[in-house]
Amino acid sequence: MEKSFITSYADSPEIRKFIGRLSNPWLFRLFLLTKLPMAFLAGLRIKHIDTMTCQVSVPYRWLNQNPFKSTYFAVLSMAGEMATGVIALMAIDWIKKPIAILVVNLEADFTKKATDLSTFTFSKGDDFFEAVQKTVATGEAVTVTAESIGTNEAGEEVARFRVTWSLKARSKKS
Questions:
Q1: Is 174 part of a structural domain of the chain?
Q2: Comparison of pLDDT for 80 and 22, the residue scoring more
Q3: Residue 44 belongs to a domain with what CATH number?
Q4: What is the pLDDT of residues 49-61, one digit of tens each?
Q5: Backbone angles phi, psi at 85, to 5 degrees
Q6: Is the N or the C terminus of the chain less surrounded, counting Cβ atoms within 10 Å?
Q7: pLDDT tier at 13 (50, 70, 90 boundaries)?
Q8: Alpha-carbon distance values, 29 to 35, 66, 77, 92, 162 (Å)
Q9: Is residue 93 part of a domain?
Q10: Cα separation of 160 and 162, whole Å?
Q11: CA dihedral sign of residues 3, 6, 10, 13
Q12: Does the pLDDT value for residue 96 go beyond 50?
């Protein structure tokens, strides 16, 4: 990847504004309440975000539990998907072109019961910035398989999600 490409998005005021909106707890909760109400109810939070990395946490609590006294897999899936999807949305916001985005596949490995705060980390944000540039340049759909790893408060892995996103530049209607 070219150095000027990294600098062009990492230092842009649009990216700083996007990160600022998501880093503001009130604005983020309002976003969840209006656009992702189940994530709001589950208590998802962004712990860290920049152009390369996103960390999303979800607590273990009564509303999120399964009958086996651990966090329900669908709640973990929301957090795992969000850790990847937020950077995808950031890349789309940065490019300022209409791009359709859709989850086309999801794979998961559950390695330990999630019985406390789970934090999912995605750290290959440049994949989405490259993908939006490619779909805008070619008009073809581009897929990105993004992996987020969930850990508990002790740092032990509880789950791993591989989310495949499809991104396609929308054609202008005349």
A1: no
A2: 80
A3: 3.10.129.10
A4: 999 999 999 999 9
A5: -65, -30
A6: C
A7: confident
A8: 10, 24, 19, 21, 25
A9: yes
A10: 7
A11: positive
A12: yes
